[in-house]
TrEMBL record:
Enzyme class: transferase
Pfam families membership: HATPase_c, HisKA
Top-level lineage group: Bacteria
Catalytic activity reported: ATP + protein L-histidine = ADP + protein N-phospho-L-histidine
Protein name according to UniProt: histidine kinase
GO molecular function: ATP binding
Segments forming domain Histidine kinase: 41-261
C-alpha cells in the first residue's frame, strides 16, 4: 500500500530528524558546560592577583602613599601582580586559540640545541635563586636540526623548564637531553629531581587549570595552564609527550620532534 509506505518513510524521517536534533542539543549542552566551566576557572584564576593588586592600591590610598619607603615597595608589589595578570591573560588567549584549532603552525628548520640554550639563559636567574643547576646532556654533536614551529617549541621547553625549577628542590638539578629516537625523530627530555607528582594525579596534570593539591604548586604562582599548552602544541605537531614521575625523587617530561630533512645532519 503506497500510503502506508509513505507514512512509514515519513515516520522514519521524523525519527531521524529528532535523533539528529537530539545529538545537536547534546553537543550544545556539552559545549555550554565546557564554557561555563572554563569561565568559572578563569575568573577564579584572575581573582587572586586582582585582590593582591587591589589590596596594595587601597593601602596606598589609605595613607601609605605618604610613607616614602612603603610607597615604593607597595607599588612594586602591585606591579608584580599586574605582571601576573598579564601572564595569565596571555596564556588564556593562547590556550583558547589552541583549543579551537585557530593557531596555525609555521614550521621551519632550526637548531634545537641553540633554542634550548636560549631558554637556559632566560631562566638562569630563577634557577640561581633556588641554587638549581641547569645542565645539557647531548648524545650527538650540535647542531641538531628539527622541523617544527620554533616559537611554539620554545614555549614548550620554557614551560617544562620553568616547572622543573618551580617544583624542583633547592640545590637540585634539571637536565635536558636530546637523543635520536628512530630515523627521523629526536626525543627531548627534561628531568628534575624535585618533589615529583603523585601517581593518582598524573593523568590529570595536562588538563587546563589542574594543579596538584598538596604540592608546592599552591604556594608557587601559576595558572595550571602551562602543561595544557605544552600538550596542545605537541599534539598539533602530531608528536607525543610522556611523563614519568616519582614522589620525592623527581619527574621526567619527554616529547618527540621531527628531524629536519635538510641542513646540517649528524
Ligand atoms: P602550573 O605550574 O601553573 O600550576 P602546569 O600546567 O604547568 O601549571 O602544571 C600543572 C601541575 O602539575 C602543577 O601545578 C604541579 O602540581 C604539577 N607539575 C608540573 N610540572 C611538575 C614537575 N616538574 N614536578 C612536579 N610537579 C609538577
Amino acid at each position: 500500500d503506497p500510503i502506508t509506505t509513505d507514512m512509514r518513510t515519513l515516520t522514519e524521517e521524523i525519527g531521524k530528524f529528532a535523533k539528529d536534533k537530539k545529538i545537536e542539543i547534546d553537543t550544545l549542552k556539552v559545549r555550554e558546560e565546557y564554557r561555563r566551566d572554563f569561565l568559572g576557572n578563569v575568573s577564579h584564576e584572575l581573582k587572586t592577583p586582582l585582590f593582591t593588586v587591589q589590596g596594595y592600591i587601597e593601602t596606598l590610598l589609605d595613607g601609605a602613599l605618604n610613607d616614602k619607603n612603603v610607597r615604593k615597595k607597595y607599588l612594586q608589589r602591585a606591579n608584580k601582580g599586574v605582571d601576573r595578570l598579564m601572564y595569565i591573560v596571555k596564556d588564556l588567549d593562547l590556550i583558547t586559540k589552541l583549543e579551537v584549532g585557530e593557531l596555525n603552525l609555521f614550521r621551519e628548520n632550526f637548531d634545537i640545541v641553540e633554542l634550548i640554550e636560549g631558554v637556559f639563559d632566560l631562566l638562569e636567574m630563577k634557577a640561581d635563586k633556588k641554587n638549581i643547576v641547569l645542565t645539557f646532556d647531548m648524545e650527538y654533536p650540535r647542531p641538531i636540526y628539527v622541523y617544527a614551529d620554533k616559537d611554539k617549541i620554545q614555549r614548550v621547553i620554557s614551560n617544562l623548564l620553568v616547572n622543573s625549577v618551580k617544583y624542583g628542590r633547592r640545590d637540585g638539578t634539571t637536565e635536558v637531553s636530546v637523543e635520536n629516537l628512530i630515523k627521523n625523530k629526536v626525543i627531548i627530555r627534561v628531568t628534575d629531581n624535585g618533589e615529583g607528582i603523585p601517581k593518582r594525579q598524573m593523568h590529570r596534570i595536562f588538563e587546563r587549570f589542574y594543579r596538584v593539591d598538596q604540592s608546592g604548586s599552591r604556594k608557587e604562582g601559576g595558572s595550571g595552564l602551562g602543561l595544557a599548552i605544552v600538550k596542545h602544541i605537541i599534539e598539533a605537531h602530531e608528536e607525543k609527550i610522556y611523563v614519568e614521575s616519582e614522589i620525592e625523587v623527581g619527574s621526567e617530561f619527554s616529547f618527540t620532534l621531527e628531524k629536519s630533512k635538510v641542513g646540517a645532519e649528524h
